[in-house]
Amino acid sequence: MSDVIVIKVGGSAGINYDLVCDDIAALVKEGQKLILVHGGSHETNVISEKLGKPPRILTSPQGYTSRYTDVETLDIFAMVYAGKMNTRIVERLQKRGVNAVGLSGIDGRLLEGPRKASVRAVVDGRQMLVRDDYTGKVEKVNAGLLNLLLDNGYVPIVTPPASSTEGEAINVDGDRAAAMIASAIGAKQLIILSNVPGLLRTFPDESTLIPHIRYAGLEQALSFAEGRMKKKVLGASEAIAAGVKQVVFGDARLASCVRNAMAGKGTVIEG
Ligand code: ADP
Q1: What is the average pLDDT across 79-106?
Q2: Distance (Å) from CA 108 to ligand 1 centroid
Q3: Which of 106, 121, 147, 220 might form a disulfide with 163, Cβ 3.0–4.6 angstroms?
Q4: Could you tell me the pTM of the whole model?
Q5: Which CATH topology does 5-270 take?
C-alpha cells in the first residue's frame, strides 16, 4: 500500500472548488501525495442546453443512470470535462502554488476499457438497446504514468473521457474510474466528495447520514441510494473489493472538506 490518497470531486451544483483546492494545496504543502479525479456533470448539462442539445439520461434495467453519449454529446462532454473543468481546477491549484498536471483518461491511455457495443435502457417502461453510445467501463489504469508524475512532485488532475481498447474517447463514470485508480496505485484511502454530507438513509434529510458501512452492508446501502448516488456506492464497493482499505463519502461544500473526510467525517466504508 502506498501513502497516496485519491480524491474524487463531483460535478454537481453547489460544490465549492475553491474550498476543495484550498485544502488540497495545504495538504500537498505538508507532503501529502494525492491524485484528484473530477467530474463535470452539472456544467455539461448547462452547456449542452446552451448548445441546443439538451442532455438525455439513460436508466438501465437495474436503475443505474448514465448520460446518453452520441458523437456530438461526446464532443460537448470532452469540451467541458477535459477542457473547462480540468483547466480551471489546474489553474486554481497553480495559483495556490501546486504543480498540477491535467490529464484526461485518453492521455497515455491513463484510463482504458472496452466500449459497450450497446447499452440496455428502459424508456417508457420498455427495454431498448442503444447502439450509438460512446460509453464504457475502466478496466485498466496506467499507474506508471501517475507514479511518474507523483514521484517528480506533480499532482495529477484526472478526468473522463477514457480510452476504449481501440483508442476511441469514451464516457466513463468518474466515481468508478477513481475506484480503479485507487486500487491500481494501492491508495490508502479513496475520498468521494459531493454536494451531500455522505450517504443519507432518507435523501434529502441530512440528519439521516449513515456514518459507517461495512463491505457486507453495501448491498443494503445501495437500496438507500437513488440516481447517481448508486454509482458512488458501486464505486466504493469495487474499490474495497480491489483492495482499497477505506472509502469516505464527504461534503465538498465545506471548508477543510478533504481533511474532514480523511479524518472520517461523512460516510466511511471499510472492508
Ligand atoms: P457528483 O456529480 O458530485 O459526483 P452526483 O450528483 O452524481 O454527484 O451524486 C450525488 C447526488 O446523489 C446528490 O446530490 C443527491 O442528489 C443524490 N442522492 C440520491 N440518493 C442519495 C442518498 N441516499 N444520499 C445522498 N445523496 C443521494
Answers
A1: 98
A2: 31
A3: 106
A4: 0.96
A5: Carbamate kinase (3.40.1160)
How many residues does this entry show for the chain? 271
**8 Å CB contact between 193 and 156:** no
Q: Residue 254 — pLDDT band, cuts 50, 70, 90?
A: very high
With a 6 A CB cut-off, is 160 part of the ligand 1 pocket? no
Alpha helices, H only, 81-228: 86-95, 143-151, 174-184, 218-224
Nearest-atom index, ligand 1, CA of 194:
3
* DSSP state letters, 230-251: HHHHHHHHHHHHTT-SEEEEEE
Q: What is the mean pLDDT of residues 133-162?
A: 97
Residue 228 is predicted with a pLDDT of 85
Nearest to 59 by CA among 123, 16, 14, 135: 123
Mean pLDDT of 116-127: 90
Residues 6+ apart with CB under 8 A from 207: none
Q: What percent of the chain has pLDDT over 90?
A: 92
Domain range annotation of the chain = 5-270
Answer yes or no: is the C-beta of 37 below 6 A from any ligand 1 atom.
no
Question: Which mutation among 17, 20, 203 tests ligand 1's pocket best, with the greatest number of atoms within 8 A of CB?
Answer: 203
